[in-house]
Request: fold
Amino acid sequence: ESLASQPYSSSLCLEEGSYKFTMYDSFGDGICCANGEGEYVITSDGVTLAKGGEFTGFSVDETFELPPASV
Reply:
């Protein structure tokens, strides 16, 4: 079954620090705009750390900082 046009969500428990998220696109046209309205959003405790969807090429990298956890 294809995940095309279907929302996908994943949760991870990560330590504080710097991370690189890479989104791959097998067609090389990004995940939004010409063929739909796809996007990715990276959040922590409701705060958006990175987001996007429009890119050229077969991948895009997002670097973000994860702050210390709230107690």
The chain has a mean pLDDT of 84. The two ends are 41 Å apart (CA to CA).
